[in-house]
Write a structure and sequence with these properties.
This protein is an alpha/beta fold and 399 residues long. Helices cover 43% and strands 20% of the residues. The strands form three sheets. It has a six-stranded mixed beta sheet with strand order 1-2-10-7-8-9, with helices on both faces. Strands 5-4-3-6 form a four-stranded parallel beta sheet, sandwiched between helices. The chain has a four-stranded antiparallel beta sheet with strand order 12-13-11-14.
Length: 399
């Protein structure tokens, strides 16, 4: 049984291993709220996962340690287990989905663990890890549905209570539910009036769907840029704890997550992965009732693959109205492009790309199309530019 005493014990065990991450005020994430960010993206290994993994492994018997451990992960739990195993001199085998970011795979290897890539998603890696446990006698270190792991994650709740004792709400990402189970239990035990909200990716809403149905469901598939929370099925322990201690679970889209990653980089100089930005995305897009409340968004991890970062930033720019495209039909004669460019420039828009093509068959033989990509301030600015172009008699066919 999970208890507050055990979470305090976990905090003691972890005190010489992890860092107590800072809480940073972020006034522009949602200007109607008082938003603070718990920066677990700056934790060792770049994620909160090391808390639960290390505490679980610290409590293994000598016999269990001698047999070695096996774990499955989308990447962050893998690094936590690998680091803990390295420190304790334990053999570790980690099953990762073959789509896991290369940065997470290489980081796991760097801690000395043996990595086994499994075709599919997290749940497929989970199945393979259980097979190795049964076949070779390893001790399985579950990424979320384990009481000791949950207690390790709950140390974040204790830190938050020390850092912001007058907080009124906490937003926490949910994959399998281990993080929010520990955090919610600790916070509700210390001050039940604090609201705890879970945030899932819209493409992987396993906990939200299970709560709605009243029983644990397994999704047919998951698809989201938040690979760290792309879980088809919540755990039994975590489903029970979320049902009991969490006030509500909401979802955010990949576009909203991308916008949050961009905002955290620009405004707070913080790099987060998809899962790590989910709580901030929920605050940015008013998914939970936090106006006027002192609210903490938990940034669960920062291990984003740099190869996809540019794509995520591009989606974030579009989502926040910082980037847009217009396709305009013109008569192919001198001065037309100048008219378009002058109109956009007079309103402060910046043209970053121009593509020209002749009209298709069936259209005016003198017709042409130009496709423009612009840098803009926000969605209102896009509307202003669009209206100005229309006022000049230009035909916008897209944008």
């Amino acid at each position: 049984m999970i208890t507050l005493d055990k979470i305090y014990h976990a905090k003691y065990v972890l005190s010489d291993v992890i860092r107590e991450t800072d809480v940073i005020y972020a006034p522009h994430i949602n200007e109607k709220s008082k938003i603070y960010l718990k920066t677990e993206n700056l934790q060792i290994t770049g994620s909160f996962k090391v808390r639960g993994a290390y505490y679980k492994m610290s409590q293994l018997s000598d016999e269990e340690k001698a047999r070695g451990v096996v774990a499955c992960s989308a990447g962050n739990h893998a690094q936590g287990v690998a680091l803990a195993a390295q420190k304790a001199g334990i053999k570790a085998v980690i099953c990762l989905p073959d789509g896991a970011p290369i940065s997470k795979v290489e980081a796991t290897k760097s801690y000395g663990a043996e990595v086994k890539l499994v075709e599919g998603v997290y749940d497929d890696a989970y199945t393979e890890a259980l097979r190795l446990r049964d076949e070779l006698g390893y001790t399985f270190i579950h990424p979320f549905d384990d009481e000791l792991v949950i207690e390790g994650q709950g140390t974040i709740g204790l830190e938050l209570f020390d850092q912001i004792p007058d907080m009124e709400a906490v937003l926490v990402p949910i994959g399998g539910g281990g993080l929010i189970s520990g955090v919610a239990y600790a916070i509700k035990a210390l001050k039940p009036s604090i609201k705890v909200y879970g945030v899932q990716a819209a493409g992987a809403p396993s906990m939200r769907s299970s709560l709605s149905s009243g029983s644990i469901l397994t999704l047919d598939s998951v698809s989201t840029i938040a690979d760290g929370i792309a879980v088809k099925k919540p755990g039994e322990h975590t489903f029970e704890m979320v049902s009991k201690y969490v006030d509500d679970v909401v979802t955010v889209t990949d576009d909203e997550i991308s916008a949050a990653i961009l905002a955290l980089m620009e405004q707070q100089k913080l790099v987060t992965e998809g899962a790590g930005a989910c709580a901030a995305a929920a605050a940015m897009f008013d998914k939970v009732p936090i106006h006027g409340k002192k609210t903490v968004c938990l940034l669960s991890g920062g291990n984003i693959d740099v190869t996809i970062l540019s794509r995520v930033i591009k989606r974030g720019l579009i989502m926040s109205g910082r980037n847009c495209q217009f396709t305009i039909e013109l008569i192919d004669k001198p001065g037309q492009l100048e008219l378009v460019a002058h109109t956009i420039a007079s309103l402060g828009g910046n043209v970053t790309s121009v593509h020209y093509e002749h009209a298709n068959a069936g259209q005016d033989v003198n017709g042409c199309f130009i496709r423009l990509e612009l840098e803009t301030r926000n969605h209102d600015h896009i509307v202003e530019i669009r209206n100005a172009l229309l006022a000049k008699g230009l035909n916008i066919v897209n944008g």
